[in-house]
Amino acid sequence: MTKRITVIPGDGIGPSIVDAALQILDKVGCEFKYDFCDAGIAALENEGELLPQKTLDLINQNKVALKGPLTTPIGEGFTSINVTLRKKFNLYANMRPVKSIKGTRSRYENVDIVTIRENTQGLYSGEGQIINDEDTVAEATSVITREGAERIVRFAFDLAIKEGRKKVTAVHKANILKSTSGLFLRIAREIAALDKYSQIEFQEMIVDNACMQLVMNPKQFDIIVTTNLFGDIVSDLCAGLVGGLGMAPGANIGKDIAIFEAVHGSAPDIAGKNLANPTSVILASVQMLEYLNMNDKAQKIMQALKQVIESGESVTRDLGGKAGTTEFTQAVLSKL
C-alpha cells in the first residue's frame, strides 16, 4: 500500500528546499504519494489564515508530514504556528540530531548528539502570558507535569536502546527552579534507575554548565533530554557544533502523528534566488524514513549527501562552495 505524506512547502526558501527533498525521496524509490497544503504566510495569502483546517485535516489523515520553514507574522494576536501544531497534535517529543560531516565549516569532528526536547510544556509553551495595563509588568507561567516529564525521559532512554547509544544526560536548572526543573530532574532520576535502562549511563547537568561543556568538549555527550525552553536553546547550540542550522533537522513526534521539518528560518532575503542549502530538510526526510522503518533508503540518502558535502564540489555558499540549490540537489541525485 502506497504511503501518503502531507507536505507543507512553507515560506521563503521552503518550497525550493522541500522540492529538493522530494526529488531525492522519489529517486531512492520511496513511492510516496504527496498531499500538498499551506501554512504560514503562503496560507495567509492563499486562504486568509495562517493554519487552515485543510492542513490540519491532512496531517491528521496521513499521520506523517514533511514541513519547510514557516514565517509567523509579527504582531498582536499571532502565535507561533509550530507551537500550535505541537499542541494541536500533542507532538510531545522534539528530536534534534546533529552529526559531523566532513566538508562543513565547523570547529569539531566526530560530533554525534541527539537533543530530546519536551515539546508541549514549560515556559516556551507560552501559557499564562499577562502584561498589565501600564505596560510595566509582564508575567508568564511555566507548568511541568509528571506525565509530561516521564514520557519525554522514557522517550530518550528508549531511543538510546534502539540506536545502541550509551548515555543520557538530563539538563536542568533544579538548583534555582526547584519546583518545575526540580520535578523534571527527580522524575529523570526515577526513570534512569529502572532495571530496563540499567545498561544506559545516566548523567545530570545544570543547563549553563551543559552549554559550556558542549562548547569545550561536545564528544562527552550522546543523548541530551531536557525541558522545552532549554531544549530550544541547547539544540541550536548543538547545530552550531556541526556547521549551523542548515545541517540540523528536527522531528516532532506524538503518539501516532509525526511532523519532520527544517529547523532554520524561511530566509526571505534569498528566496527564489537558487541559493539555499536544502540539507536540513533532506536530513528531516531521512528522519522521516527512519520513523517509517525504511532504514535502507534512509542510509542511501545519508551516504549520498555525505559524499557530496565531503567532496566540496557542487555545495552551496554556506558550505564554502558556489553551487545553488538546484546544482546541490542534482549532485545528490547523481550519487544516488
Automatic annotation (TrEMBL):
It holds the Pfam family Iso_dh. InterPro entries: IsoCit/isopropylmalate_DH_CS (IPR019818), IsoPropMal-DH-like_dom (IPR024084). One of its GO terms (biological process) is isocitrate metabolic process. It comes from Saccharobesus litoralis. Residues 4-332 form the Isopropylmalate dehydrogenase-like domain. The keyword Oxidoreductase applies. Gene3D superfamilies: Isopropylmalate Dehydrogenase. This is NAD-dependent isocitrate dehydrogenase. Belongs to the isocitrate and isopropylmalate dehydrogenases family. One of its GO terms (molecular function) is isocitrate dehydrogenase (NAD+) activity. Keywords: Oxidoreductase.
